[in-house]
Specification:
Length: 142
């Protein structure tokens, strides 16, 4: 017996015609997984709220940062050089990520010469940036 989803092709062989239910079945699985995930997180947070001890003390209500008692003002002067070091680190760390795909492409046949030239141009830009930072005195710790 044929279902309503079956139809005959020109050769007389029955073929299956996808129904809307088949199409939305994949979305229902994803939706069900999302609901289960949200319920799992909600149950975990609810259990934590029910099981934890609630004993507020003045020490627990203090602002806490790195084990240092909060004394004085909340406004502190920070040297700009720390931001410069962090910025330089991010630049060179992100740029070094490009070395791994380059090594993979360089190993492929037919890409050796062009890839090598592109990589030296890339390393040249990095060297110019490092030279600029060195000339400006950014790399000196004073």
């Amino acid at each position: 017996m044929r279902s309503s989803a079956d139809a005959y092709a020109g050769s007389g062989v029955p073929t299956r015609v996808p129904l809307a239910a088949d199409y939305f079945h994949a979305y229902s699985v994803v939706g069900l997984l999302a609901v289960v995930g949200v319920l799992f997180v909600a149950v975990a947070f609810g259990a934590g709220r029910l099981l934890r001890p609630v004993v507020p003390t003045p020490e627990k209500l203090l602002t806490y940062e790195c084990g240092v008692d909060p004394v004085g003002e909340g406004w502190a002067h920070t040297q700009i050089r720390y931001y410069v070091y962090a910025f330089l680190y991010v630049i060179f760390a992100v740029d070094s990520v490009f070395l791994f795909p380059w090594a993979t492409v360089f190993a492929a046949p037919g890409f050796g010469g062009a890839t090598l030239v592109e990589m030296f141009v890339f390393l040249g830009f990095l060297a110019v940036g490092l030279l600029y930072a060195w000339k400006k005195g950014v790399l000196e710790w004073t």
